[in-house]
Amino acid sequence: MNGPLLEVADLNVIYKTYEGTVAAVNGVEFSLEAGRTLGLVGESGAGKTTTALSIMGLVPSPPGIITSGSVNFAGKNLLSLSEKEMKKIRGNHISMIFQDPMTSLNPVVTVGVQISEALVAHQNLSEAEAEKKAMEMLEKVQIPGQRYREYPHEFSGGMRQRVVIAMALACNPGLIIADEPTTALDVTIQAQVLELMRSLKEEFSTAMIMITHDLGVVGEVCDHVAVMYAGRIVETGSLEQIFGNARHPYTLGLFRCIPDIEEETSKIRPIEGLMPDPLDLPSGCPFHPRCPQCMDLCRTVVPGVLDDGGHRVMCHLYGKGGAVHG
Amino acid sequence: MLRYFLKRLMFLIPVLLGVSVVIFSIVHLAPGDPAEVMLGPSATQEEITNLREQLGLTKPLYVQYGIFLTNALKGDLGRSIKSNAPVVDEIMERFPATLTLAVLGMIFAIAIGLPLGILAALKQNTWVDALCSFFALVGFSIPNFWVGLMLMLLLSIYIPILPSSGFDSWKNFIMPTIVLGIQTMAVIARMTRSSMLEVIRQDYVRTARAKGISDRLVLTRHILGNVLIPVVTIAGIYFGHQLGGVVITETIFSIPGLGRLIVDAIRAQDYPVVQGGVLFFALCVGIVNLLVDLLYAVLDPRIKAQYRAAK
Amino acid sequence: MNNENGTLFAPSSGRTKEREKRRSPWWEVWRRLRRNKAAVAGMSVVILLVVVAVLAPVLAPYDPNQTNIKMRLQGPSSEHPLGTDNFGRDMLSRIIYGSRISLYVGFVAVGIGAVFGGILGAIGGYYGGRLDNFIMRCMDVLLAIPQIILAIAIVGALGTSLLNLMIAVGISQLPRYARVVRASALTVRGQEYVEAARAVGASDARIILENILPNCMAPIIVQSTLGVAQAILSAAALSFLGLGIQPPTAEWGSMLSSGRQFLRNAPYLTFFPGLAISVVVLALNIFGDGLRDSLDPKLRQ
Fold first, then answer.
1. Which ipTM value was assigned to this complex?
2. Which residues are registered as beta bridge partners of A324?
3. Which of C141, C254, C279 to mutate to test the interface with B (most CBs of B within 10 A)?
4. Quick check: C118 and C110 in contact, CB under 8 A?
5. Where in this chain does the record put each ABC transmembrane type-1 domain (chain B) (predicted)?
6. CATH T-level topology, domain B87-309
7. Chain C residues close to A45, C-beta within 8 Å
């Protein structure tokens, strides 16, 4: 295939609320090759989920508005598609796994129907064929196919998330967006589910966007990493580039938050301060109030992007020219 | 399931016992003397005393209650003072009309209230929502007897297309059905709206949308299935309330049903009919609640599982 | 009904947070209520009606019970804006005076229901166990009889009078207050400050009054507002059936009932009293809805 599978450019999303306008996503850009995995990292409220929902065309509206940008998927700008055309993409070519398996399955519909309905909608299968395929999918996520007729409440949390994974993979999509798929699970289950996702991703050769706040998860499953802060991607690059040579003070801060068993615990240092109020973002670099290396320039001018062999950083420490006023 | 049903049926017994105590006390606290009522003003003191003896009114109250209860369990609610017919017969003669009305009223309430609530929620914060919500609030607030009279004025007097009384053709049912169902309709509409707004925000609805299935399927399979659960609860509760409404409806449209039987009996101090009628109403309410419980199990597999577990 | 008071993001703004700190919770409720246009409209109508009821002798153009056979069944005119009834009494004056009875019955009946229901609920919730069980089963019994039928039976037994009407409507409303108060009593019961009060030897009655009651004021106020609306409807229905306020007293339900026989020739006799009931009940319901939303922003979108 020519070019990347997914290319997001200059994406801007706002939420209009009574209290004011929330700038949730500000000029996000990234691309993803077929079959690869991108880790979208950041604290909650950084705009990761909104970015994902924009790709899916599911930004809640009102209050959400995509003000500009493009999302090119397999040569089509998804943002210019009609709702009807978008329905053919959703669940078929791009599917999404949500955070909480306890709430993302409908309690009054059997898991089988919840898996097979995407097949019926997109692959023109009859109910019976879809049922057979859905049972196969259940087996793929290591759940006995005969549990097809059971309801979500009859499954444990980890099993429910596997049902959700089976749902997402049912139509063999080109891209899966997984929004913190393991956060709500027990630690012991997390590793199992992650391993399952990785092996199924290989088997189906699906590209994936893994949204997480856990750099450990990123290290295990991703090829590329994009770090988000206050609606912007502040640093992006290959796994090696980010893990071996992180540059942005925020990314460095995130790494310092990971406990390292081999080193002394005293090295864990949380990033001071809180995410800025999205209603009232700071001027200049959004990270400057919390940045240990803040300069005068950072307070007034939004930094430009420095591209160093695919390793892109948005920080005045590295970018000389190219500053964007805003 | 069956065992659960039987268990719930057993719960009904203390409630009905309670109702019998309450209504027996209310009726026997009444100042009037049934014997005097029966014999009319021309009766002599001796005749009254004899009749009191005969009716068992000279016995202590708890003995009278005991007799009433044992007979009631045998299906004998005594005889009407006015007509001397068995109360059970009087009730059964009037019950079909009332049941028809109650069921029609409920169908009307659901048929109008549910779509109204769904529409309001789908168009939240638009003028459609405002209109539906206001309509529901009005339906909840206007006295149903007034609605009845205004309908009658409009459809029987100004544009005479519907009969104002009687009980023989389907046309007779239209206005009483509206009068009886309007408040329940309003309650169902309000409940449906708020329940929809709650369900629409749920993660599983977003999951369903993310699958790219049609909006119609999202609505019918994923939203409505969950919306109906609280709506059925409120409809069940209101069914009892609505059953009371037959008193008004039957009075306005001269329908010979249970409601009018009770009102007439109270006016005539015909206490066995009052007692039996109220007890019968309570029985109906209890049975409806039981049916609603069973309906839950159909709508919500989690509750069904609980029923199975609670053997 | 509108999202004017967008409570969703209220706490996130620094400015409002500071302001909130300085204000009492009731001030906050009032602030939210004021923003709800519908609720303010409802409240204004209720206040207006109370004023009309209080000033009835001043506002009414005629004596509501002054009969005038020559002027019977006159349609609306400049002299009698709402017409006259079959005894020639001025309908406008009767409706104005009727507001007194309706509001009086509504408030007193709710008072009876709320006080007794509240006491039962507080006792049940606070002591729990068998007593609670017994009280709640009694409420179930009351709920098993359709409200209006219960009220009819009570009025039938006690006889028709204003007081009996209020008692009947009040009793039929008991369960809803008992439930509300019991629910908050249950949540408060296990709280540490109640345990602390008990430890220092406060009497049960005092704990209930000082700790449990303030805690359930919000739901009680909402229930009472909606309850007054219900009570006015029930009372009017009973009067309509001839089991409530008796003629010649000017009461909307019984006016409707007596106007019924003139439906064909003098429809205004039934139209205006019904309209009056509808307006009061609608206003109370809108106000009650708004109050509930203001007291519990979590319930809103």
1. 0.86
2. A302
3. C141
4. no
5. 95-296
6. MetI-like fold (1.10.3720)
7. none
